[in-house]
Amino acid sequence: MIDGLLLGFQVAFSFDNLLYCLIGVTLGTFIGMLPGVGPLVTIAMLLPMTYGLPPEGSLIMLAGIYYGASYGGSSTAILVNLPGESSSVVTCLDGYQMAKKGRAGAALAIAAIGSFVAGCIGTLAIALFAPWLGRAALDFGAAEYTALIVMALVATSVLVQGAFIKGLLMALLGILIGLIGMDTNSGALRYTFGLTPLMDGVKFVVVAVGMFAFTEIIMQLRSHTAQPVEATKVDSLMPTREELKASALPILRGTGIGMFFGILPGIGPTMSSFASYMLEKRVARDPSRFGHGAIEGVAGPEAANNAAAQTSFIPTLTLGVPGSATMALMLGALMIQGITPGPNVITERPTLFWGLVASMWIGNVLLVILNLPLIRLWTALLKVPYSWLFSLILILSCFGIYSLANSYSDVLLGAFFGMLGYLFLKLDCSPAPFILGLVLGPMLEENVRRALLISHGDPATFIASPISIGFLSATILLVLWILLPAVRRRKEKIELETN
Amino acid sequence: MKQMIQKTLGIAALLAGIAMGASTALADYPEQPIRLIVPFSAGGGTDITARIVAEDMSKTLGQPVLVDNRPGAQGIVGTKEAAGAKPDGYTMVFVLQATLALNPSLYSATNYDPIKDFEPIGQISESPYVVVVHPNLGVKTLAELITKAKAAPGSINFASGAAASFLASRLMQQAVGIELTHIPYNGSGPAITDLLSGRVSLMLSSPVSVLPHIKAGKLIPLAVTGAKRSPSLPDLPTVAELGYPNFEVSGWYGFAAPAGTPKEFIDKLNQALVQALAKPEVQAGLEKSGVEGKASSPEELKALIASELTRWTTMIKEAGIQPE
Question: Is this complex's ipTM strictly greater than 0.85?
Answer without folding.
Answer: no
